[in-house]
Amino acid sequence: MANQPLPLSQETLAQFNRSMATEPGASGPPKRRLGSISTRRSSKDQPHHRPLFLRGMTVPSSELSFLSANVSNSHVSMGKRFSFAGWHQGGRVSFSGLYLQQPIQEVYVENTCRTGPEPGCHFSATRTKQILQATLDSYLEGVCYSPDSCSQLCLMLADLVLSELKDVSPPRYKLVCQVVVGQSGKQGIRVASRSLMNLSTDNYTSVVFQNHSLFAVALVHGMYFE
Amino acid sequence: MDEDPSAEETTFVVDEITTVIKEAVESTIGNSSYQHSQINQWMSSIVESSLSQLTKLGKPFKYIVTCIILQKNGAGLHTASSCFWDNSTDGSCTIRWENKTIYCIVSVFGLAI
Fold first, then answer.
1. Where are the domains of chain A?
2. What CA–CA distance (Å, rounded) separates A55 from A2?
3. A34 backbone dihedrals φ, ψ, rounded to 5°
4. Closest Cα in chain B to A184
5. Which residues of B touch A162 (CB under 8 A)?
6. Which residues touch B93 (CB under 8 Å, ≥6 apart)?
7. Is the distance from CB of B107 to CB of B93 less than 8 angstroms?
8. DSSP state of A9
9. Is residue A195 within 8 Å of B107, Cβ to Cβ?
10. Does an H or E element contain A11, and which?
11. Which residue has the higher pLDDT, A10 or A196?
12. CATH architecture, domain defined by A120-224
């Protein structure tokens, strides 16, 4: 771990050190605990001004050090990798040095035991058709076909139609919307669709728009998610 | 009741479906030229055979198969789709096929039940 989290503030360290110094039995060798901060009483009684960095720091034995575990009595060696993930000022800390984090709670969705949509909450083909028609008419009126812009236009239409339908579609319905935009030429074109669905809950609708230079076909399927 | 189906059975596998659809299109319009009178029949045949083959895969999916047949005339065509579904279980694939006189675009959408 190359980047350490923020070092402890000097006040916190000084305070802790003072409190340790006043405790009885603090003159003994520091407890060596993995993953913990232990403090050492120094032979010199001076506050420590240097910021605390936990790795790659070697300290002369005579100086006060607020260092990590595996501190030898005479010399600090940082051979062991030590992680302090989550140390930051103001964070919750226990004096074992471990940062207390809230456990990540997985979200469990309960089974609704629902096998079909509620009455009145079915995918409405007629209403969808009205919305589709209105959208296409308003968006494409007066638009001329151009090979460069029509691919973007097609994508935008598909997204636009989907966003409008998402607002009005009943819950638990998945929507598939397809838009075909083409140049009005003298070619023949046919668009067909067939689906494997549950007729009691699912439905589809399609709308065609045409002007002098382009045509557009929008196809929307609403599928109930059991 | 088997409550832990293998991952393959509940995800949309694009390769498998592409193969199925290509076969359906080839067998229907193969080397034919665009004929207005035959179009209805071709469309029904492509779409029905695709759907029946997809059903035979036996996966717990609802399918939507869309087919566009376009005569090659120099005119441009764009198609786009947007879907409101669960990305982890549902998927789509689009197969483009052409010969000298016909463009055929088949889109398959699979929605997990």
1. 120-224
2. 9
3. -65, 140
4. B75
5. 82-84
6. B12, B14, B17, B18, B21, B107, B108
7. yes
8. P
9. no
10. helix A10-22
11. A196
12. 2-Layer Sandwich (3.30)
CB contact under 8 A, A155 and B65: no
pLDDT in tens, A105-128: 666 667 777 777 777 778 888 888
Q: Tokens 């966003």, residue? A: A163
Instruction: Give A94's DSSP letter.
Output: -
Q: Which chain A residues are closer than 8 Å to B70 by Cβ?
A: 182, 187-189
ipTM score for this prediction = 0.80
Burial of B71 (0-12, 13-18, 19+ CB in 10 A): buried
Taking CA–CA distances from B70, the nearest residue in chain A reads: A189
> What pTM, to 2 d.p., does this model score?
0.62
Q: May I ask the CATH class of domain B5-112? A: alpha beta
Distance from CA of B6 to the nearest CA of A (A): 20
Residues in A closer than 8 angstroms to B113, CB to CB, are 225-226
Answer yes or no: are the C-beta atoms of B40 and B81 closer than 8 Å. no
Q: Which of B95, B75, B109, B78 is nearest to A155 (CA)?
A: B78
Contact across the interface for B78 and A159, Cβ inside 8 Å: no
Rounded average pLDDT per 10-residue block, chain B, 113 residues: 54 85 88 86 90 88 90 86 89 90 90 86
Residues of B in contact with A195 (CB under 8 A): 51, 62-65
**Mind listing the pLDDT tens digit for each residue in A155-198?**
999 999 999 998 888 888 899 999 999 988 777 788 888 888 88
B75–A182 C-beta distance less than 8 A: yes
**A179 by DSSP, 3-state: which?**
strand
| B contacts of A144 (beta carbons < 8 Å) | none
CA distance linking residue B92 with residue B54, whole number of Å: 13
A130: number of CA atoms within 13 Å, CB side?
4
Interface test with B, best of A178, A186, A221 (most B CBs within 10 A): A178
